[in-house]
Fold this sequence. Notes:
single chain; alpha/beta; Rossmann fold; 8-stranded mixed beta sheet; 9 helices
Amino acid sequence: MSWQLKAMRVLLRHAVRPSLGRQRDSLSARVWFERGAWLNARGRPYRTFHEDEFVRDGHAVTALWSSPAAPGAPFILYFHGGGYVMGNPRTHAALGGYLARKAELPCCLPDYRLAPEHPFPAAFDDAVHVWQALMAQGHAPERIALGGDSAGGGLALALLSHLCSTSQPLPGCVFTFSPFTDMTLSGESVRSNARSELLLPFERVEQLRNRVLAGADPADPRISPLFGAFNGAPPVLIQVARTEILRDDSRRMAEHLRAEGAEVTLQEWGNLPHVWQFFHGWLPEARKALGDAASFIRERCPQPPSAGN
Length: 309
């Protein structure tokens, strides 16, 4: 364990997690998250990103690109985390930019709709919308590395399940960081790891679920990909910390994917915070995890050989 992680564990447990638990509503949580992301990134890296808009059938979803990707070229499609109620491409630009540099591929971060203003299935619908728009633009599905963290990781897997179930073209690979895959909250670690969890306040999880679902079925695979179908799925990488409350979301997701015939790499790390990759500017453990993810992506979505080769 690095000294940086030792210091961050104290900060998260005694300051950040209690502060997150005190946020009154989604609006205040978003402001809190934006400020935290700015401090974590030590600036606003999204200012160097390129704005884009995916328009299809009268609906538009905006996005940020670390750099533009030409049709047919490989790139990363990354859905940000935030429990479906907070976060946006700006809060995750530092993570997306770092991953883009390590993988040597552009990264696209869509700005999907958030609850409670836009409850389930708005985020899922936006994910499908973005995928269809990318296909209409001529992008090659097998050259896309699909990923996300926390709720965004669950969203990436939900999109993958939808593509598998409807016999649509599939991405070249999928990677997720501490994905939220089960809105029924049936995983044992949701409760057994409540004390060891460094970031997520366990006592607010059910309230979060209610805001997102607004009465919908928590076992719907569009929000709980643990219950989805994945026939023909591409290789999947899942990274999770053993001490976080969503550990079993990852373990059971890996088991389910393997049962469906997918090649799965499950990396369980030590006593780390939920989505520790977010803190790559501070933690060597985060940089190592993102380096592993970048290697996974490069192997499955490589750059085409140059014209001179």
